[in-house]
Amino acid sequence: MKQLFAKKPLSLLLEEMKGENRLRRILGPVALTSLGVGAIIGTGIFVLTGVAAHDKAGPAIILSFVVSGMACVFAALCYAEFASMVPVAGSAYTYAYATLGELFAWIIGWDLVLEYAVASATVAHGWSHYFQDFIGIFGFKLPHSLTRAPFDFDPSSGLLASTGTAIDFPAIIIAALITAILVKGIRESAGFNAAMVILKLVIVLFVIVVGAMYINTENWTKNFAPYGFTGVSLFGKTIFGQTGLGGAPVGMLAAAATIFFAYIGFDSISTHAEEAKNPKRDVPIGIITSLLVCTILYIAVAAIITGIVPYDKIDIDAPVSNAFKQIGLPWAQLIISFGALAGITSVLLVMMLSQPRIFLAMARDGLIPKEFFGAVHEKFRTPWKSTILTGCFVAVLAGLLPLRILAELVNIGTLFAFVIVCAAVLIMRRTHPEAERPFRSPWVPFIPIMGILTCLMLMFSLPEENWLRLFVWLAIGFVIYFGYGRKHSVMHEKITSGEYVLENNNKK
Questions:
Q1: What is the average pLDDT across 261-284?
Q2: Residue 472 belongs to domain spanning
Q3: Of 4, 33, 262, 347, which has the fewest Cβ atoms less than 10 A away?
Q4: Cα dihedral 290/292/296/299 (nearest 10)
Q5: Is residue 117 in some structural domain?
Q6: At 34, which CATH number?
Q7: CB-facing half-sphere around the CA of 414: CA atoms within 13 A
Q8: Residue 155 domain flag
Q9: How far is it, in rounded angstroms, from Cα 170 to Cα 152?
């Protein structure tokens, strides 16, 4: 029991930074902000807007983005405080280890594996649809069997239905290409991402400016919230609002839970704290700046899309480019499809860049095999083995699972991580009030408490099957932890040798 709740001292975390097996510090505030924007702007605007507006919220998706953005602001301030205190790889996993103990750290680390890996598969899935939309403009078409996952989720029946295809081939190809770039190095990855970010920001501004000229306000006023403004459920049972045909909650809040995936990019910035030049200053700047910029852009694009096309006519797979096609601007469809490809590519890059850093932190603590997951390439200084494994896992998920299942599975894992981080800030303020905090979250305890409550509300707004998938994933994680991690834990060795107890006694 002592080991399960043993906390990793801040001094030990900082000591790890002096070792040889660490990552290269080359990222400044602009590069970190670019990584954040690269991860946030993409799938949320170019893909999930269609699913949420069509199935759950209608034009009220504008408010859904506001609600999700507020929940993220609370969590982002907590992330920024921790990232400035403990500038090492690992993100919420590391924060949980320092505040809640090893068992909670494992839970959140295993949860982050779900978040980043499945998020990457979701993004690759969206990239595939825009790629097919783009080549379709020139008259090219892939064989039907290679165009999408072999089955999809039907919201009208709540059941899985065959699509008549074999695999989503473009999704597999893009996952393989991004993996190769990531193995090469963080400098090349950051440079590639910066170019993609500039391009997609230009396209997003193009969508806002040109789309504003074709807005039909009746699309907003006639039926702004066709599914209502609520959609809160408790483990899949709707308690406030309407229920969709498949039994899942619908409404503005239900849509907010679905599109929450669009915001998780700021979380990835904290996983790169170990590669920041001045993490105590630059990481908080990157987190907060990227979140504020992207929230404004999300709200604007959601307003444009639901303003130019009736919500029930929005295309689920490629909503932005198809909306401009519907209003008679095929030339704009070409520009947007190309920009969407660039935007989604950068999201995929940052998501797949973050996953191996979580593995690296867990491997350093002995919870997973260090020889494989902790291996840093001598020349490129990247966790190359876990990067290749991540790429293979993402390719399999993206090729075989449909978008709706992937998106909601990511959301519940992300929200769970945010709840843990907000709670950890409250605990650290009480247990380590003397710790250096280069960035301090304002209005504590209000900010962390609101972060916990809003994230829990959105978690409860997700369908019941997502809770089941989360519990199954965590159960698999417990098997791995008690079968391997607990026995090989670095903290276990310290407790056995008496080093951990001695440190605590000296502190007392």
A1: 79
A2: 10-138+165-507
A3: 4
A4: 90
A5: yes
A6: 1.20.1740.10
A7: 33
A8: no
A9: 17
Angle, CA 326 vertex, CA 322 and CA 331 arms, to 5°: 70
Which amino acid would we find at residue 83?
Answer: A
Task: List pLDDT tens digits, range 312-371.
Answer: 999 887 788 889 989 998 888 888 888 888 878 878 887 888 788 889 889 989 999 988
Give the C-alpha separation, 82 to 104, whole Å.
16
Tokens of 461: 């707004």
Q: How far apart are CA 208 and CA 303, in angstroms?
A: 9
Q: Identify the top-confidence range among 29-43, 127-141, 303-317.
A: 303-317
- Tokens in use for 372? 């494989």
> Per the omega criterion (within 30 degrees of 0), is the bond before 445 cis?
yes
Could you tell me if 51 and 301 are in contact, meaning their C-beta atoms sit under 8 angstroms apart?
A: no
Give the chain's end-to-end CA distance (angstroms, integer).
Answer: 21
Residue with more model confidence, 217 or 434: 217
Query: Across all residues in the chain, what is the average pLDDT?
Result: 83
437-473: string of b/e by CB count within 10 Å (b at 16+)? bbbebeeeeebbbbbbebbbbbbbbbbebbbebbeeb
- Angle of CA points 247, 248, 249, to nearest 5°: 120
Is 60 exceeded by the pLDDT of residue 21? Answer: no
How many domains are contained in the chain?
1
Cα maximum dimension of the chain: 73
The one-letter amino acid code at 29 reads: P
Would you say how long the chain is, in residues? Answer: 508
The verdict on residue 480 lying in a domain is: yes
Instruction: Give the confidence band of 44 by pLDDT, cuts at 50, 70, 90.
Output: confident
Residue 144 covered by a domain:
no
